[in-house]
Write a structure and sequence with these properties.
Length: about 190
């Protein structure tokens, strides 16, 4: 009979998230995960499976914490445009203050092309964020804060792509002012 777990899975996943964010999937060894989580390989594998399964669990945990907070922030803003502007402000702050970047954006460029499980996590996240942006664009049209009348779904997809671009530029030591200029250009599409 297996012993009951003596650790909090969410705490372990949060530590795995930070390790994968810092080093990427390929750059993270099982030893790195053991050191970060304080668990031995057998405990990690017993709870989560292999390194890839732990990575997928870490992606889902990141999406369920960081992603949910981001969506809640978007929904809390008074106008559709304010929600989109707030999203860009959050992304710029993260790009400047956090050189590790977004775990899901990193996963998109590092693993999704050759790992269907990672691709699903990345796609799920894209759909959620694009959906929130679509809702903000439509809310902005209804409240008058968004003047542009083109295809709202394409606008949401473009805005999402712009946030990814800002995160990528942040990893190249792009200055805050330059990132704000990119966001400003993206926001001009809202009219």
């Amino acid at each position: 009979m297996a012993r009951p777990r003596s650790f909090d899975c969410d705490v372990v996943l949060d530590k795995a998230v930070e390790t994968f964010r810092e080093k990427g999937f390929d750059g993270t060894s099982v030893e790195d995960l053991e050191k970060a989580t304080g668990l031995r390989r057998a405990s990690l594998y017993g709870a989560f499976g292999d390194k890839r399964a732990l990575y997928l669990a870490a992606l889902r945990r990141y999406q369920g914490t960081q992603g949910v907070r981001l969506l809640e922030t978007l929904n809390a803003e008074k106008s559709g445009r304010a929600a989109i502007e707030r999203l860009f402000a959050i992304v710029i702050d993260a790009a400047v203050d956090d050189p590790c970047g977004c775990l899901l954006a990193n996963a998109a460029s590092e693993r999704s092309a050759h790992d269907a499980g990672v691709a699903r996590c990345v796609s799920d996240n894209r759909r959620r964020v694009e959906g929130a942006l679509l809702a903000a664009v439509l809310r902005g049209r209804a409240d008058g804060s968004v003047k542009a009348r083109g295809d709202a779904r394409s606008s949401a997809r473009f805005l999402f792509a712009a946030t990814l671009g800002i995160r990528a530029l942040g990893r190249t030591e792009c200055a805050r002012a330059e990132l704000k200029a990119v966001a400003s250009e993206a926001l001009k599409t809202l009219g």
